[in-house]
Amino acid sequence: MCAKHHKMPGTAPGTLVAPKGALTPKAVHVIHYGQDSVAEADIASVEELARLRNGKGVVWVNVDGLGDVELLGKLGQLFDLHPLALEDVVSVHQRPKVDEYEDNLYLVVRMLHYEAELRTEQVSLFLGKDFVLTFQEDVGDCLDPIRERLRKEGGQLRRRGADYLMYAIVDAIIDHHFPVLERLGEQVEELEDEALERPSQRTMARVHQAKRELLSLRRSIWPLREAVNALLRTESPLISKNTRLYLRDCYDHTVRILDMVETHRELVGDLTDMYLSSMSNRMNQVMKVLTVIATIFMPLTFLAGVYGMNFRHLPEVEWRWGYLAFWLAIVIVTLLMLWLFRRKGWLGGGRGQ
What is the 3 state secondary structure string of 99-159? Predict the structure, then answer.
């Protein structure tokens, strides 16, 4: 779903306006865990979440859909979220960034989806002392492996705090770029073969689509790299020194992804020149065939034109073998010209000159 922000200019800061066409969440998914226990539930009210939060451990609250601004407002009151940060949650055009507030951190990342074509979805994260909140535009994400890790006993994720959960979510979203880039790389290779062997208008359309997808990726990963770097540089007590080491690995992954995106963009850019070159070569081959045919028929047309004139006295008109001689001359001239063209390499063989 491609929801667009439609807040009216001049609206008071912190006003929550649901994006146009936004999905209304059916429930709030909550995972409350500690080193020795984990509880998971879909709750329908924020009051139920308030009771659950009173226990020890870390709470991960995930909301799929931004259509219920009343629910977002109640969550903001419960977790003491800044109104400007909540406004950014429903403003789905945000670039990846990090905003630091008094009691929490707000992080925006973009998650990739690749079905028929590439699209990006805004994911907003709030990190507090004992909670992580994630807001997604739609149902479906790449975070199921993290949920499975939380359900298993003895995992490192269960033993650490909310900052490590935030790192795990960001790391999963970043690593999800790699399989998408692999699919794009395979498409670029197919386009390269198609541009060389069977170029067509469809080829050029696919090249332009690949350009748009890679440009969208570039716009997503460039600010994401800066956002992860900002997390590394921040002195917030919400992020432990040990977690910063893992965030450094996230930063390395964003650099690798950016390098892959730039490489693919260069290859796709070269495909346009390759397509035009292939089309030019095909046109040259067609023109060569047409030129050879026209050249062969030039002397034949000349002979036909001479003996097709309506003069009464032509020397060969009354000759008994004139008609046969005419066709014999045509065959000899045709074979002679074909031999000459082949000798010069104009028909794909011979020495060429």
Answer: EECCCCEEEEEEEEEECCCEEEEEEEEEECCCEEEEEECCCCCCCHHHHHHHHCCCCHHHH
For the chain, the domain total comes to 2
Left, alpha or beta for 345 (phi > 0: left; psi -120 to 50: alpha)?
left
pLDDT in tens, 163-184: 999 999 999 999 999 988 888 8
Same domain, yes or no: 74 and 213: yes
Cβ 76 vs Cβ 106: under 8 Å: no
The verdict on 236 and 330 lying in the same domain is no
Q: Tokens 């490590």 belong to which residue?
A: 164
User: Is position 6 within any domain?
Assistant: no
- Which residues in the chain belong to E strands, given as ranges? 28-33, 38-43, 58-64, 97-100, 105-114, 118-127, 131-136
Instruction: Using DSSP, state whether 193 is helix, strand or coil.
Output: helix
For residues 4 and 262, what is the distance between their CA atoms, to the nearest angstrom?
28
In angstroms, the CA 193 to CA 199 distance is 9
Same domain, 231 and 328: no
List Cα–Cα distances, 41 to 55, 74, 97, in angstroms: 15, 18, 30
Judge whether 282 lies within some domain. no
Place of tokens 């909550």: 30
Establish if 4 belongs to a structural domain: no
Distance from C-alpha of 209 to C-alpha of 215, rounded to nearest angstrom:
10
DSSP letters for 58-111: EEEEEEE-S--HHHHHHHHHHTT--HHHHHHHH-TTPPSEEEE-SS-EEEEEEE
| Residues facing residue 61 across a β-bridge | 30, 133
User: Residue 241: enclosing H or E segment and its boundaries?
Assistant: helix 241-307
Q: Give pLDDT < 50 ranges for the chain.
A: 1-5, 350, 352-353
Q: Taking the complete model, does pTM exceed 0.85, yes or no? A: no
SS3 309: coil
Three-state DSSP class for residue 34: coil
